[in-house]
Design brief:
- The structure is a single chain.
- This protein has 2 domains: about 20-100 and about 190-315, Rossmann fold; about 105-190, Adenine-specific Methyltransferase, domain 2 (Orthogonal Bundle), CATH 1.10.1020.10.
- Strands 1-4-3-2-5-6-8-7 form an 8-stranded mixed beta sheet, sandwiched between helices.
- It is built from 10 helices and 8 strands.
- The N and C termini lie close together (about 10 Å).
- Helix 3 packs across helix 6, helix 3 (about 95-105) packs across helix 7 and helix 4 (about 105-120) packs across helix 6.
- It is of the alpha/beta class and about 325 residues long.
- The structure holds S-adenosylmethionine.
- S-adenosylmethionine (SAM) binds near residues 209, 230 and 244.
């Protein structure tokens, strides 16, 4: 465990690993607060936990990295506070990174595309809506050629109209949530997308596995990294991590603890969320482990909703 962050100089190598679509580092421009919130509904989204997580985040302005961005609730929160001096957001999901990129760079085109879906969907009867949803779901980008904007619009449309707003993928990475039947889903949400686009200006985005992050943190001179992986299941039937397109195995959790160890040796401060179980407490035993309480709303069985204990692990006092 270290006590002070040592900021590495920024490397000119911006295209480190995977699809790095970073633009120039605008420095101070990013620190101007922009009020924005997640535009994707995401399983395990951290929106409701921000108040508790905030206590475990270093004070002041940050060179911020988020490894498992998903909806990016913590990023948007810190950005709204004007505390982000530089940001690198990553995720292994190409759909997420593409959506973030399109929102950042082409919000107008995305909004027009979404309006088209909204009109077609909302003007249909129940049967027509279901048909439209399943037709869109079947148009997988691996099979149906589509532009980045069309791909992002497909993802947002499905995210807004599927059951529980739950982006769930099967083992081969195919979105497979059923249709949701909301009466008037907000499909376009122009103000939210415009605000998110503003907040993402100057932010670097990378589609990559978490194992690439020590190098990325070095290249981007990060001084704080948030890690919110698919949680280790509390029991064999718990499937909270099924949405991640395959399993995030116990070995992945152990590899992630290694990555945290490497970031620690580099002098990068970090905060990690995970489920509260002996396996995770063992992996992170040498660091500071605090308990947080989360409302668990991603369970089919109403009786198993309610509060669950999670851990917030950090590597500084
Ligand atoms: C719990 S969600 C993150 C939720 C996010 N913090 C929020 O507030 O919305 C986990 C994310 O990890 C991503 N992911 C899964 N396996 C990964 C891996 N091996 N490397 C990087 N990202 C991964 C998933 O695509 C998913 O977006």
């Amino acid at each position: 465990m270290h006590t002070a962050s040592q900021i590495q100089p920024l490397s000119p190598r911006d295209r480190a690993i995977g699809l790095d679509i970073a633009r120039e580092d605008p420095g101070a421009a990013l620190e101007r607060p922009v009020q924005a919130s997640p535009f994707l509904k995401w399983v395990g989204g951290k929106g409701k936990l921000i108040g508790q997580l905030e206590r475990h985040i270093p004070q002041g302005s940050l060179r911020y990295g988020e490894v498992f961005t998903g909806g990016g609730a913590l990023f948007f929160h810190l950005r709204s506070q004007g505390r982000v001096q530089h940001a690198l957001l990553g995720d292994r999901s190409l759909d997420i990174v593409n959506a973030l990129t399109v929102v950042r760079d082409q919000p107008g085109a995305l909004i027009s595309e979404l309006r088209g879906h909204e009109l077609a969907y909302l003007s249909s009867d129940a049967e027509g809506r279901a048909e439209y949803f399943y037709w869109m779901r079947s148009r997988h980008p691996a099979e149906v050629e589509q532009s980045d904007v069309q791909r992002a619009a497909r993802m947002l449309f499905l995210n807004r109209t599927c059951f529980n707003g739950l982006w769930r993928e099967n083992a081969s990475g195919r979105f497979n949530s059923p249709h949701g039947r909301y009466e008037k889903p907000a499909i376009t949400q122009e103000p939210r997308l415009r605000a998110a686009s503003q907040a993402l200006q100057g932010v670097a985005l990378v589609q990559t596995d978490f194992r690439a992050w020590p190098q990325l943190a070095r290249d981007h001179g990060l001084d704080f990294v948030y890690l919110d992986p698919p949680y280790h299941p509390l029991n064999a039937t718990s499937s909270f991590n099924a949405y991640s397109g395959g399993s995030f195995s116990a070995q992945s959790q152990a590899d992630l603890a290694e990555v945290c160890g490497e970031l620690d040796r580099m002098g990068v401060r970090w905060l990690l969320s995970n489920s509260d179980c002996p396996f995770i407490r063992d992996l992170y035993g040498r660091w500071q482990i605090d308990t947080v309480w989360a409302a668990r709303a991603v369970n089919c069985k109403a009786e198993s909703r309610g509060e669950v204990r999670e851990v917030a692990v950090r590597n500084w006092k």
